[in-house]
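Entry 14. Ran structure prediction on the chain below.
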Amino acid sequence: MDNYLKLALLGEGSYGQVYKCQHRQSKDIVAVKKYLHSSEQVVSWTLEREIKLLVQCRHENLVRMQDVFKHDGHLHAVFEFVDRCLVEEVAREPQGLQKTSIRKHTFQILRAVDYLHTNNIVHRDIKPDNILVTSSGVIKLCDFGFARTLPETKVPLSSHVVTLWYKAPELLVGDRMYSKPVDVWAIGCTILIMARCGVFLYGDTEIDQLHQIVRKVGPLTPGQMQMFSDNPNYTSFSLPEVELPKDLRRKYGLHDPLLADLVEVSVLSSAQLGSH
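Output, structure tokens:
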């Protein structure tokens, strides 16, 4: 860290802190993530996996890692500095982003996720907080703490991924053989936030989130219902029966039919592909 001057703390989480810094020699502004030390083996694996994926991934719409080093026993990663995240942009537009901005952002988010999925990587934490926006409007997907390369053969994956409001129904019912559609579902949730300037599915708990999905998006698939019935966490719960509008714009509260179609496609990807 001797080469960098700390300017501000940008954020912190379970695994680390992110600082806005200036390189003392070049004067470049960067973001430096300091990974907090932990003796827990699972945390160590998570950090190692995130660094490996960041080294591997190079795409215009993914945040670029410039360097990685150790200082005072802590691992540090240096990233390009990006002005703001999507949360901040949405907060400035109380009626939702302009249609043109939503389409441009969505296109770039899809490009980033397509790159990851083509390389058999699932992000598992897509949300506005993890989508950066440069001053020129370029999207940069970031935070690969939950990301992983999918194994060639099916193995159970951790269910402790994806922030609650962006969790696909297969994750909520306990499917551990899920795959790339969990990212696609989260993209649909993100589109709705950009268009509506508010969270569409805002459950307080996992069962409440499932209720929100059924009431606003539609019923679970037969396979998901079976998993729900078999899940011991839900033995005393039932799900509502609701008839939703057939018009997608009314269903999702969107004026743009193209965006309504995109959100519905994200829903169908989870329902039809599931863990395939």
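The chain has nine helices and ten strands. Will compare against last week's run tomorrow.
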